[in-house]
Amino acid sequence: MVIIQLNSIITIFLPFFNIFRLNKYNEFCGVDGMSGIGTKYRNLKRYKKIGEVLMKYGFTFAAQKLNEKGYIPKLILKPKQQKEYLSHGQKLRMACEELGPTFIKLGQIISTRRDIFPEEVVSQLAKLQDDVKPFPFEEAKKVFEVEMKLRIEDCFKEFNREPIASASIGQVYEAVLNTGENVVVKIQRPSIQRIIKGDLDILFTLAKLLDEHMDKEKPYNLLEIVEEFSRSITKELDYSLEGRNAEKFHAYFKKDTSIYIPQVYWDYTSKKVLTMERVYGIKIIDKQGLKEKKWDLKEVATISANCFLKQVFIYGFFHGDPHPGNIFVVGPSKIAFVDFGITGYLDKGTMNFISNLFTASARRDVDKIVNILIEIDALDSQTNPRRLKEDISFLINLYYNVPLNKLNLGEALKKLMEVAYTNKIKLPSQFIVLLKAMVTLEGSVKFLNPQFSLSNIAKDFVKEIYFHRYNPKNLAGEFKDYSEEILDSIKYLPKQIRTLLKKIENNDIKFQLEQIGIEKLQGELSKMTNKLSLSLISSALIVGSSLIIQNASGPMMWGVSVFGIIGYLLASILGVGIIISILLSGLRKK
């Protein structure tokens, strides 16, 4: 009876003991050692909730692993009524919705990765909506005043207490500065950073547990996905980064009369508060509103496409979420972008990858495409090169002769992601962000102008890229970078040569050769050595037995030494065994 009670006590308090044995606290939270115990304790309730949701939607394996490590009590693992009529994707989407903002945003990230997740899952997660109830104005006011160390009444002539938009991280208010400018003020939810930090800690733990026990040949690593998500959502939590993104876009397009980027008011901006100029216009998807203004829909579509192409191919820095709610038409030939929380960037390596990929595709050079993927380390060790080439050839031939005005970019990119998933190809994350942005923008542009074709603007835009690339200022900058690179190489070359010569002189140079099939060779050598050893033993027995019989040593039988007879018998058995082994080995090879 005492033993049963003791087991019950241990079961109840196991999660609390687990606090003290957990590994170093997630770097994202900024604490380590004993300082993280308070957060760990708060996470126990969240672990329990996650365990219940996992069991509810049939993710029993994940819940069991959490229980084995002491994160959730065994009581949660009681069988529950399963929703067998739902697909895996539907269960995952509903679980994310029930678990709240962090998991919804993670699901949205996964929904863009058609290259590593099956279509049934990503299509369901794409339906996740970041829609939550607004929090009270009093809480928003408190956040603003703590951040700015100023009273709202002292900063604004007017401030609408009702938010015009509400999301999981923050909500947006209309206001008028004391100087008369109309602005929007984005204020972060009071507890959102603590919630997301706690959820990220749990996600890292869960991802690590599942990676250790799942198929090692799966085309993705859960821990890497959570790390990517952590970086993304950490940036979204810092509104000052969004402000800097907006200023960067403003600098790029300040001379472009067809693009408008709102101004950031830094006096009222911090990590949790963002104040920007209010943009008045018509949403790009409001076709009826644009027609009432008698604005040319085709021209608006062309301007939008041109702007995005400039962002990608000229500046290498683009709006990562150009959905209709983030693009306004503010004049007959002018559009404005808002919400710069999600942006993408393309370094020289990624830009070269995209350019080379499209060039090779245009030439239908399948071998070149595969070589490009190898160069960026996109292929998995399990990828079948022959099958990959077949899939790429099929995709190229499927779309090669399709006119651009009839090409469904979304469908084409979807098939591209299916090829990547089937062949276990992992594409660069920024390339995935770009593809998602392209599909999103294409939907808006095609809505305004169903006959829109890239061929209509490609000629002029290619000229613009050419003039930008070969602009004397840009050429001078590239020449300067190239010269500095060469000078650095020349500068360090003598030192590198001296180091190499010194290693040769001291005999420190080592060559490492990797022999394919070395284990098989070792096995064959081992078998040969064994056979040779047995042959020598057999020969020794025959010689020794002959000497014993000749000298008539030991007990005698039929006038012959018994030891000599035994020796001959053993030698005969070994000899027959060696002959049989050799014959069987020859038959196997045939």
Automatic annotation (TrEMBL):
Q: Tell me the SUPFAM superfamilies matching this sequence.
A: Protein kinase-like (PK-like) (SSF56112)
In terms of superkingdom, the source organism counts as: Bacteria
Query: Which GO molecular function terms does the record list?
Result: ATP binding; protein kinase activity
Q: Give the transmembrane region(s).
A: 556-584
Q: Which UniProt keywords apply?
A: Membrane, Transmembrane, Transmembrane helix, Ubiquinone
Matches recorded under Pfam families = ABC1
Q: Which InterPro entries match?
A: ABC1_dom, Kinase-like_dom_sf, Prot_kinase_dom, UbiB_kinase
Q: Residue limits of the Protein kinase domain?
A: 158-487
- Family note: Belongs to the protein kinase superfamily. ADCK protein kinase family.
Q: What is the name attached to this protein's record? A: Ubiquinone biosynthesis protein
> Which species expresses this protein natively?
Natronincola ferrireducens
